[in-house]
């Protein structure tokens, strides 16, 4: 890959910098676990209008409609990171459902859902895991029974993030109970306000309820809400999982977190010495920095593969595992750098960054499990990437 910038690309960099300087007073970050606020919605619309969000999504579906360009994408990322500017929404709807609909959705579904999702007007949650179907997702039991032109959905989901805020859910249900477990599953879209849905929050060790249980009792959903064809949900779900794992291993987000850690280590001192000047702490930081750079260049390799239509191969398989573990290790170093202040969490005069490092350290443990655990990821890498023998199944008793 030739990353050398031409005069045209240098001009594009100036254009991005000009945009960021002109609109600096309109920066609006994501709202975290809450619904997007008005300022964030306006910032998102501005980014889409100028091609800094939804850049390559066709205009007929509400995107900017640009051709994929590795160098321009790299320039946008670098300039937004350097300016500390929010890159717009990166929620489940935009990062997971939109690419899935572009891949396998009907024309009606694309035109109905993609544009409002990109603009942040429709918030989605994902209905995948069940109490008895986590790592073995194909064992899911939530059923959809035919009733005229509709399905009646009954069952439950668990570890459903943003369920309490979401307008819509993309959900896996079993439509053919007699079929083998990987068949007979359908991928369905329906409103979270449909009668028969109950959401119960799950409080984690962060003190917040980032996840939820969701219960369905005879929830009526039209059969036209199926994506990718009835009984083909396993195929559609894997398309979504591919994008979910890419989202969880975003190297740009990890690089931004590393920059925050560097600033923290420049500020915090022990016996008057900055922690970044401490040989032991600096050595740990440099090891993480090397891994972040590796992820970043692996990301460029993935981008190249997507533009040339080639399989990403092993480069794509390692993203989720490496990204989630690395994010947690960066937070762990920050906690160590904070020393005794690292155990603080509630509001107080000595709390740093509003407790975000402590929250990340605890919350990121869940991300190592979610979207396919680290153990599942290692199996995928060994079996699909390295061609090693499949893991033996447990003997039936």
Structural account:
- Strand 6 and strand 7 form a beta hairpin.
- Helix 1 runs parallel beside helix 3.
- The chain is built from twelve helices and ten strands.
- The chain is of the alpha+beta class.
- The strands form three sheets. The chain has a four-stranded mixed β-sheet with strand order 1-4-5-8. Strands 2-3-7-6 form a four-stranded antiparallel β-sheet, with no helix packed on it.
Tally of DSSP β-strands: 10
Mean pLDDT: 90
Look at the helices and sheets and give the structural class: alpha+beta
H/E element sequence:
HHHHHEEEEEEEEHHEEHHHHH
Q: What spatial form do the alpha-carbon principal axes imply?
A: globular
Rg computed from alpha carbons, rounded to a whole number of angstroms: 22 Å
List keywords for this structure.
single chain, about 400 residues, four-stranded antiparallel sheet, 12 helices
Short description:
With 397 residues, this protein is α+β, with helices and mostly antiparallel strands. It contains 12 helices and 10 strands.
């Amino acid at each position: 890959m030739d990353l050398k910038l031409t005069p045209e690309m240098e001009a594009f960099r100036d254009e991005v910098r000009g945009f960021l300087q002109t609109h600096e007073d309109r920066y609006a970050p994501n709202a975290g676990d809450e619904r997007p606020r008005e300022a964030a919605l306006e910032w998102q619309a501005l980014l889409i209008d100028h091609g800094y969000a939804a850049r390559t999504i066709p205009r007929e579906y509400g995107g900017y409609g640009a051709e994929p360009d590795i160098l321009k994408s790299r320039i946008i990322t670098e300039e937004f990171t350097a300016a500390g500017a929010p890159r717009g929404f990166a929620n489940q709807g935009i990062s997971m459902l939109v690419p899935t609909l572009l891949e396998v959705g009907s024309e009606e579904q694309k035109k109905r859902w993609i544009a409002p999702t990109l603009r942040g007007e429709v918030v989605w949650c994902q209905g995948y895991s069940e109490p008895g179907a986590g790592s073995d997702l194909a064992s899911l039991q939530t059923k959809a029974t035919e009733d005229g032109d509709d399905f009646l959905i009954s069952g439950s989901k668990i570890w459903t993030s943003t369920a309490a805020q979401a307008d819509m859910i993309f959900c896996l249900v079993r439509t053919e109970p007699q079929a083998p477990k990987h068949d007979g599953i359908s991928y369905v879209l329906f409103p979270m306000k449909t009668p028969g849905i109950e959401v119960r929050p799950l409080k984690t060790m962060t003190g917040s309820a980032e996840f939820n249980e969701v219960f369905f009792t005879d929830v009526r959903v039209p059969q036209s809400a199926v994506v990718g064809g009835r009984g083909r949900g396993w195929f559609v779900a894997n398309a979504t999982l591919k994008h979910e794992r890419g989202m969880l291993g975003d190297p740009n987000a990890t690089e931004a977190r590393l920059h925050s850690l560097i600033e923290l280590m420049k500020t915090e001192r022990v016996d008057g010495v900055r922690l970044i000047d401490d040989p032991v702490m600096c050595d740990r930081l440099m090891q993480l920095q090397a891994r972040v750079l590796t992820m970043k260049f692996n990301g460029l390799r993935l981008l190249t593969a997507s533009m040339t239509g080639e399989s990403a191969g092993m480069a794509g398989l390692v993203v989720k595992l490496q990204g989630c573990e690395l994010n947690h290790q960066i937070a762990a170093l920050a906690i160590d750098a904070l020393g005794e202040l690292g155990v603080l969490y509630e509001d107080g005069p000595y709390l740093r960054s509003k407790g975000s490092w402590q929250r990340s350290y605890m919350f990121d443990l869940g991300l190592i499990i979610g979207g396919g655990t680290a153990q599942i990821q290692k199996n995928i890498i060994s079996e699909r990437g390295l061609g090693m023998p499949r893991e033996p199944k447990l003997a039936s008793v």
